[in-house]
Amino acid sequence: MKQFKHFISQVCRAATVTVAIALLTPAVGAQDSTKIKLHSENGMLNHLAVGLQTGLGGTGIDVAVPLHRIVTVRAGIVGNAFGDIKFKAVNTATDITQMQLVEDDAVKQAKMVDKVQLALKPRFWNAFIMAEVHPFPTPFYFAAGIFAGNRTFLHFRNTNEGALQSLYDANQKVQDYNNLFHTNYPPVGLKFGDYVFTADENYNIDVKMKTWAVKPYLGIGFGQSMARHHRLSVAVDAGLLFWGTPKFVLNNGKTIKSSSKSSGITHFVSWFSAYPMIQIRLAYKIF
Questions:
Q1: For 206-229, what is the mean pLDDT?
Q2: Is 92 exposed, middle or buried (0-12, 13-18, 19+ CB in 10 A)?
Q3: Is 5 exposed, middle or buried (0-12, 13-18, 19+ CB in 10 A)?
Q4: Alpha-carbon span 195 to 266, nearest angstrom
Q5: Which pLDDT band, with edges at 50, 70 and 90, does 226 fall under?
């Protein structure tokens, strides 16, 4: 949360500076219009624009410079700006029907637990560098780049700290039963699609949905990241961020395996190896 507040404050400062420059420009131009005349000629690194963006990839700030007549490079940082999302998950202990297990005190206690509230915490931050290629005399362009940042996209955790001892004890009992009688009963925990989130030794659900740290990006855009004849410009990017097949990982580093091989969230997550990105960017050309 502190990192997010710091990031927002940096974005606000950048926006303030941008607005201030925009307000001061007319006054400077009145004194010497030849010195601040907007340059639209082609060249390498002869212009600089600062931009603010928001969309499915989060909110962020970047800078852009030209490398060629048709190539512009942007670099910056972007991250999500969502708060915690709370929902209730089903306790799988109620699915146990094996008599020897049903009569166990630990399982009896777990069966008494109703749905448990989990907090879904989006925490996704990335630095990026991206090249835009404008091959045609139109606002359309192609974009390709690299995003690098934290691997955790989502973090699941129960809201009642340390309150899931009954689920932990019941899951230990099921594991012991499977080892003793060579059965294959599913674990006891909270169901999320076809995954079962089990409680750890601290009696919490603590699961992270992880992706690659380095993520290639390919997309297209419409607009200008750096205006040719004006100070302000607007652009929209749409593309795919390739982050690998996301995995659900417990706090101890163990990857959770799905209880189903052909349906539910497993199928969805397997397909979800590329994250869709749509970003809107407002830029101010400094020189």
A1: 90
A2: buried
A3: exposed
A4: 8
A5: confident
Quote the CA–CA distance of 61 and 50 in Å, as a whole number.
8
Residue 129: strand pairing partners: 75, 146
- What are the strands, taking DSSP E only, across the chain? 49-55, 58-66, 71-79, 85-91, 116-122, 125-133, 140-149, 152-158, 190-192, 195-197, 206-210, 214-223, 232-242, 247-250, 274-285
Q: What is the pTM of this model?
A: 0.73
Nearest alpha-carbon partner for 162 in 107, 109, 206 = 206
3-state secondary structure of 138: coil
Domain boundaries in the chain?
2-285
Of 31-40, 98-107, 159-168, minimum mean pLDDT range: 31-40
The Cα 24–Cα 168 span in angstroms is 63
Q: How far, in Å, CA of 93 to CA of 105, rounded?
A: 12
Residue 230: its pLDDT value, please? 82
- Residue 7's pLDDT band, with cuts at 50, 70 and 90, is very low
Residue 211 and residue 191 in contact, taking contact as beta carbons nearer than 8 Å: no
Query: Does residue 213 surpass a pLDDT of 70?
Result: yes
Judging by DSSP bridges, how do beta strands 190-192 and 195-197 pair with one another? antiparallel
Place of tokens 């690098």: 148
3-state secondary structure of 195: strand
Q: What is the DSSP string of 61-115?
A: EEEEEESSSSEEEEEEEEE-----EEEEEEEGGGG---HHHHTSHHHHHHHT---
Burial class (CB in 10 A: 0-12, 13-18, 19+), 248: buried
Chain center to CA of 50: 23
CA quadruple 120, 280, 79, 230: dihedral, nearest 10: -160
